[in-house]
Each structure stands twice: as C-alpha cells, then as structure tokens.
Amino acid sequence: MGSPTRKCFIGLDIGTSSAKAVAVDEHGRVLARASADYALLTPQPGWTEQHPEDWWAATCTVLGNVLGKLADETDATISAIGLTGQMHGAVFLDTAGDVIRPAILWNDQRTSVACDQIETAVGQTRLREIAGNPALTGFQAPKIVWLRDNEPQNYARLAHVLLPKDYIRYRLSNTLATDASDAAGTLLLDLATRDWSAEILSALDIPRAWLPDVYESPAICASVSADGAAATSLIEATPIVAGAGDNAAAAVGGGIVDGQTALVSVGTSGVVFAHSDTATPDASGELHCFCHAVPGAYHLMGVSLASGGSLAWFAQKFAQEEAGVAERLGVNLHGLLADEAATVAPGADDLFFLPYLAGERTPHMDATARGAWIGLTLSHDKRHMIRAILEGVAFSLRDSLTRIEAQGVVPQRLMLGGGGAHSSVWRAIIAAVLNKPVAVQDDQEGPAYGATLLAAVGAGVYDDVHSAVAAMVELPTQFEQPDADLVAVYRPRYETFTRLYPALRAAF
C-alpha cells in the first residue's frame, strides 16, 4: 500500500512588487516557495499603476515553480488555494472580462478631488459610520469616481471592478468574488453587514452588478477552471477560498486572531494592527477600521507611511561610507546604521525626527506633511540623526497604538514584523516607546502563509481560523519586556513629539 496522502495548501500573494507563492502541509511546514517580480508604472508624478496581465504572468510562473518543486513530494496533494495581495487597487473590466486600462494601485494619489466628492455625496460622518473610514486617495471607490470624471470612454465600457487578488481568482476560475477584509478597503462596504452598502453605491451611482459577491475569508467561493489549470499546471476543480487583504492575511499567519496580541510591522511603511470582536470605527477618521479575515471579526489599523522607508531613505542619501563597510563585512546596512545609533544616548541629545517623508496617514491624514529633524545643534552628528529616525518612527507607531487603545482595544503584547523588527536596537526602542512586551514574528513567507491557513479551513482540515492557527503557527513563547529606564526616558519625549506636527502644520 502507498503512503497516506498529505494535504497541502498554496497561498498566493499579489504584492506591489512581486507575486509570491508558498506551499505548506497541514502542520504548517513549508514545502516550496517561489516569487516573480513585475514592473511598477508611474506615468505621472503621484500616479502608480500596474498591468494586471503582468500579475497573471507572474502567477503562472510562481505556481509552476512551486508545483515543480512539489513533484518530488509524491504523497502531497493540493487541497485548496488561498489568495491575498495588495489592497485598495482597482482593476476595471469590460463585459467580455477584458482589462480596460492599467490597474490603479493603493499608493496612487490622483484622486483627491474624487475623495471630496464622495464625502459630499455620502456625508463625512455617515461615510465613517458605514464604511469605517474617511475617503482617502488610496481606496478603490475614489478611483471609480476618478475614472468617471477623467476617462469617460473607459468608464462607458465598465462592467466589473475587482481588487488585485480577485482579478487573479477570475483568471484562475472565471469567478467574480472577493472577501470581506479586502472589500472593507474599497470604501464601498457596510462594516456592520459585511456586504456592499446600498446607501453608498446609490450616492455614488455605482451599480451593484459591477461588484463581486462578498464571502468570509475561509469560504470556498471558486474552483480552478480548465483554462486556469492549463495555464498554471494546477488540477482542474481545485477549491479556491476567498482569501484576505495582505494585512489581514499577515495577521492570521502571525496568530493575531484575538485582542491579546497586536501586530506592529516596520517595513517600508509602518502598521499597527489590532484584532477587535466588534466594528468600532474611529469617529475622527484618524484610524482605519476594516473587517478581519477571522469571520465576523474586525481589525483596527494605524498606518505610518515611511517607517523603514525613513531609514532606507537616509541610507541611500547619506550613508555611502557605511554602505561600503556593510558590503565588505557582508552585513545588513540598516542594521549597521542602527548599531551606530546605539552609541548615542536615548533621546539623541534632544533631537527629534518627524518621519513624514511621504506625507502621513495615522493620525494626521495629511498628504502635505513633511519630514523634519527638530532641535539640530553643532554637537549633533550622523549617529544622532539616525537615532532620531529610529525614535521618531517608534513615536509615530505609538500614535497609532494610542488611538487603538482609545477605541477600547488594549493589546497586552506586540508581535513585530518587517525588516525593522530584526534590529535589536530598534526593537528595544519600539518596546519602550509603546511600553509593551515584544517578540519577532517569523514573517519570511508574509501574507502568503496566512492565505494557506485560510485555505486549510476552507478545505475542512480545521474547523475555524483559530484551530488552524493553533495547529500551523509556531507562536513565540517569550516576549522581551520593555526596559524600564528607556520607558522613563521616552514617555515625556513622546508627549513633546505629539506637539511638533501641530506646530509645523501651517508651514507644511
């Protein structure tokens, strides 16, 4: 007799710079992984676009590579596929299902006028009550309004609007579907019903027929078609679950499925992600409220646009000497810079940095905000400037946590992800500024890993997301406690930090 069949799951992530696929078994062991890059288009300043066909080509490549690597696993069978990817983007299709124009991405800034129109049409307060968020340039709804006002010929052809990962589902299965967590980032979803808001759609004159059906993240909503199988080497009829937006999928993959632990990601941008059992939109609009990938649950999220991006900018512009040293020693440049910062006392000799190099979301929601060092003197050098960056980013993350806790969601510990989490110096600063125990998330596979957990639930291997996390996610057993002396230093400095942006807003 042959060996028992091992159930495996593929998670596919349609990111901003690449498609990634990972295959895991029912115990969470990674069996294969692959990635393929694609181009980012910037046809005008502030515009960001991509060709959905590039996503599809990369998808076919990574799935082929993963399935090729699995060929030696003779007892492995793909039981289900989970999808995740960049949120908020808009893929416009005509009645034939063909792409009308390049997709407009989450970080595109062309829609400020459309945002004003949406808040006027729906009402600022009412919009936040229904959708949980203000109208922001990155969301999908303003992109639809922009298309109407600026490309009427394309708008006249419009029959379907999809999010990035959902376009890949369409190509795999010929099915139009989405999930509640990703749909919550369109500004068209009613958070309470977890379905499209008839009130918002009516106010914006957007037909319901343009939008896909909404499912909970682990629900099977499609299966691989004959065409999808031919293009990818997947087996026809393989189930596909609804999946999740990238932040929600990353949270599931990191075990952030209750209110005890929040996820703090220090990548190019910074994110503070906290599970909530109820929808608690922030009336001020300073904090995002979205559906979670856990059915019936929600999450609060604060976003700092240039966290690791601030250190990367400094490294590129001002650290050529350190870059040479890092290359010779074979070490990470950003880690080397953080080690230099450690030679300076906490507080950087009273130097502050505002990490608003790309504007800012939480809490200021101000695209015109700018970065700044404040308090420079003749005694400061490069090390002080680096330390001020590390501390300024931590303060900006504290802004998000403060507002999450004001909504009644008070996590007891923090899981840190992204490149910044792997610097012991930066990690200690974040723990002290946010005054919570921290541990580092094993985020090598990123959101794609979370998508595999959702697929495992959809395939019936686990009863729910919590059971899948318990079986497939290896959670840290120890969290680093914040240093009491650092906490004492940073508490008054954070209070000063909160006064700096208001004092400079008019100048920005």
Computed structural class = alpha/beta
User: How much strand?
Assistant: 15-25%
State the end-to-end CA separation: 73 Å
Low-confidence stretches: none
- How many domains? The number is 2
Q: Biggest sheet: strands side by side, in what order? A: 18-19-17-16-22-23
Number of strands: 23
Tell me the name of the CATH class of the largest domain: Alpha Beta
Question: What's the CATH H-level superfamily name of the largest domain?
Answer: ATPase, nucleotide binding domain
The mean pLDDT is 93
Round the Cα radius of gyration to an integer and report it. 23 Å
How would a crystallographer describe the biggest sheet? Answer: 6 strands, mixed
CATH fold category name of the largest domain: Nucleotidyltransferase, domain 5
CATH architecture of the largest domain: 2-Layer Sandwich
Q: What does the overall shape look like?
A: globular
Helix fraction bin: 25-40%
Number of helices: 18
InterPro entries: ATPase_NBD (IPR043129), Carb_kinase_FGGY (IPR000577), Carb_kinase_FGGY_CS (IPR018483), FGGY_C (IPR018485), FGGY_Carb_Kinase (IPR050406), FGGY_N (IPR018484), Xylulokinase (IPR006000)
GO molecular function: ATP binding; D-xylulokinase activity
EC number: 2.7.1.17
Site (Important for activity): 13
